[in-house]
Amino acid sequence: MKLYGFWRSLATYRVRTALALKGIDAEQVSINLLQGRQHSEEYRTINPQSVVPSLVVDGGPPLFQSMAILEYLEETHPEPPLLPKDPRGRARVRGLAQIVVSDGHPLIVPRIRGYLEKEMGQDEAARNKWLAHWTLEALEAVEAHLARERETGRFSHGDTPTIADVCLASQVYGAKFFNVDTQDVPTVMRVFGECMKIDAFDRSQPLKQPDAPKNPTH
Ligand SMILES: N[C@@H](CCC(=O)N[C@@H](CS)C(=O)NCC(=O)O)C(=O)O
Fold first, then answer.
1. Share of the chain above pLDDT 70, in %
2. Which of 12, 93, 116, 118 is an S-S bond match for 164, by CB 3.0 to 4.6 Å?
3. Looking at ligand 1, which atom is closest to the CA of residue 14?
């Protein structure tokens, strides 16, 4: 497998973590989002949306969208499972994941930040306010579920990691990047702490990637 991604990409972090949890090796190809390499003609032949991640399996057409890739990995490499067995549990895990992937993360990606700056004339302070607001709002929505629902265990759903945790960890990483105060999402942060005790989450994290700068600035 070949994973096209970038150290700082939260969507790539999700796929890296799932690959690591399932013990799947993938060659990593860095597409430098800060240099706009996602827009290069060469990369657009792999992903016409100009976003990472993309996953090439056995030389076939590239897979795209992190949730679709996570589901693909789950179907093709069912062990260890990252979705519960029961339909209701699967719906809950997917719902938690979608809060991050569909509602929170899309508002903070580089093209949105670029649009706020160039088309809307927003200065850095205003852009940072935007990033922090939407990042925290998604985490608060996850917190509202985790704190009150009895399915929550050591992890978001029970005592083993699921796709919900893979997505939660990526969003918490976003909060770290944007200096978001996470004291009001204690259950999320507890679960994040549990995730980071697992080697697959830890070694997949953005700042531990070979293409990450030594002293990153955001
Ligand atoms: N919903 C997509 C998000 C893909 C996405 O927006 N990726 C970001 C990095 S995390 C990206 O490549 N952005 C490029 C840009 O915004 O120009 C997924 O989950 O895969």
1. 99
2. 93
3. 19
